[in-house]
Amino acid sequence: MAQSRREALQAAAQWYARLCSEEAGPADEQALQQWLDSDPMHQWAWQRVDQLQARLGRVPGHLALNTLERAEQHFSVSRRSVLKGLALVLGTGTLGVAAYRHTTVEQWLADHHTATGEIKQLTLADGTTLILNTASAVDIHFSANERLVILRGGEIMITTASDSNENPRPFIVQTPQGRVRALGTRFSVRMLEAETQVAVFEHSVEVTTHSGAQNQCPAGHQLTFTADTASPLTSLAPTDDAWTNQMLVVQNMPLDAFLAELGRYRTGVLRCAPSVANFRITGAFRVDDTDQALHALGKSFPVSVNFRTRYWVTVDEEK
C-alpha cells in the first residue's frame, strides 16, 4: 500500500507539472481526466496535491512529491520547516520551471509571504503598514541606520510611519534592480520579469537603480526600472490600488491582459484563446472569488469558459 501511494503521489506531482506547462494542450486535459477516473488512489493523490497547494501556495509539480512525502510523515510540521527541507535538497537554486522559474528558495523562506490568492496586511515595528499581494514575499531588516524591506517576489503596498528614533532612519524597499526610498509616502512596488514597477499614491519616492541612476517619482505616477535605467513617468489610474481591497478594477483592458492579471490570484493554468484575446473589458471583480469573475465573462462576451479541472481553465470562442 505504501508503495502504491507513493507511486500515485509521484504521478500526481508529474501531472501537476504538466498542467502548469506552457506546452499543455487538450490531449493532456483528456489524459489527466482519464488518469483521475481510472483509480480512486489517483483521486486521493490529486487531493493531497490540492491540500498542499492550499498550505504552501504554488509549488512546482516536480517538487510537490518531495514535499508531499514529508507531509505524509509529519503533516503537522510547520510550512517553514518543510521548506527548509526543500532548501537542503535544492541548495540556493530555483524552485521549478515554467510558471515557477522565477521563484527562489529565498522567496519561500522569507520572513513574510502569501500564497496564491492571499492578500495579507502587516504592521511593522515602526508602525508602517505593509500589505502583501498574492504570491508575494519579503524580508524585514531594521537596523540603527535604515529600515529595509527586501522584496523577494510579488507586490507590496507600503504606508510609511514616521521613525521614532532620535536620528530618523530612511525607509527603503530593495529589489534585484535597485532601491526605492520613501519620502513620507504611500506607494507600491511590484517585481516583474526583469524589472521593478513603482506606483506612488501619496507624496513621492526616490528610485536608485543598481548602477546608481536616480529618479524621482511623485504622487499619481508610476515608473519601471531595470538595473541600469528607469522608464518615463506615466499616470496612475484612481483604481490602481484596488487590489488592497480584494478588487481588480480594469478599464478597456484586452481580455488576455485581464486574464493574466486575474490568473495571479488563482492556482493552475488560466488560458486565453488568441481569437478572443483582443476583446476589451471594463469592470470591477473580486480577486478572492476568481470563479465568479470568470463566470461573468461568459455572460458579458461571446466566449465560453471551460473548467477542465479546478486548475485548468480555458477562455475560448463561444461555439
Automatic annotation (TrEMBL):
<dbReference type="InterPro" id="IPR012373">
    <property type="entry name" value="Ferrdict_sens_TM"/>
</dbReference>
<dbReference type="InterPro" id="IPR032623">
    <property type="entry name" value="FecR_N"/>
</dbReference>
<feature type="domain" description="FecR N-terminal">
    <location>
        <begin position="10"/>
        <end position="52"/>
    </location>
</feature>
<feature type="domain" description="FecR protein">
    <location>
        <begin position="111"/>
        <end position="206"/>
    </location>
</feature>
<dbReference type="InterPro" id="IPR006860">
    <property type="entry name" value="FecR"/>
</dbReference>
<protein>
    <recommendedName>
        <fullName>Iron dicitrate transport regulator FecR</fullName>
    </recommendedName>
</protein>
<dbReference type="Pfam" id="PF16220">
    <property type="entry name" value="DUF4880"/>
</dbReference>
<dbReference type="Pfam" id="PF04773">
    <property type="entry name" value="FecR"/>
</dbReference>
